[in-house]
Amino acid sequence: DIGIDALHILATSLTETLWDAPLPRIDNNILEGHIRREPRGPLVFAGYYNGSVVFGSTTLFSLPIRPAPEPSYVAFVAQLRGGPLGLAPAGAAPRHLAAWPNPSPDGRFRLALPAPATPGTVLLITDALGRRVARLHPAPGATEATLDLQAQPPGVYAVRLTTPAGRTATARLVR
Question: How far is the C-alpha of 30 from the C-alpha of 49, rounded, in Å?
C-alpha cells in the first residue's frame, strides 16, 4: 500500500498494474498531476489544482489573488510514502493475471498467469453484464494462455482465474 493518506493513483504498463492507490478528494475542483520516480529516489506525485484538495488529514487551498486570471491554479509536489511498490524484477512471473494488448483492437489477447497452471485451473471470461462468454482450461504447467474475443462486440470484459486450491486472480479486458 502506498500513498499520502487518501491518494489514489493507478499506473499500468502494457502488461501489468504497477501500483494502485486512492485519489485525493477534490470536491468538484480541478486536480491534475503526474507520477515520477527518479532512479533510487522517492516516488513523487506532482501537479496542480484549484479550489481545495484533501490528502487524508491535510487540506490544501488555492487562495484567490486579485487581480488574477480565472481560474487560478496552485502547483504541488507530494512524496509518496508507505510500503514497497511490489514491482517484480525484470523477467519475473507476474503476481497477478496480466493481459496484452489491452485494449485489443481485434479481440485477441495473451494472458500471463500469476503461477504455472495446475490441473483444474479455470479462466472464466464474462461481459460487462456478468454473462459468461468463454471458459478456458490452461494446460498444466502453462504460464500463458491466449484468448480470442473476436466474435464478441467491443466492450469491457472480466477474466477470473480460479485454481483448485481456491486461489483467484482477475483482470479487466477492453475489446
Answer: 5
13/60 same-domain check:
yes
Whether the bond into 138 is cis, omega within 30 of 0 = no
**Per 3-state DSSP, what percentage of the chain is helix, strand, and coil (rounded to 5)?**
0, 45, 55
Q: How many domains does the chain have?
A: 2
Which DSSP helix (H) or strand (E) runs through 173?
Answer: strand 168-174
CATH number of the domain enclosing 119: 2.60.40.1930
pLDDT tens string 119-160:
999 999 999 888 999 999 999 999 999 999 999 999 999 999
Per-residue pLDDT reduced to its tens digit, 10-20 = 443 344 444 43
Residue 92 belongs to some domain of the structure: no
Angle, vertex CA 85, rays to CA 12 and CA 167, nearest 5: 80
Whether 173 and 158 have beta carbons less than 8 Å apart is answered as yes
pTM for the model stands at 0.48
Paired with 173 in beta bridges are: 157
Question: Among 68, 64, 73, which residue's Cα sits nearest to residue 30?
Answer: 73
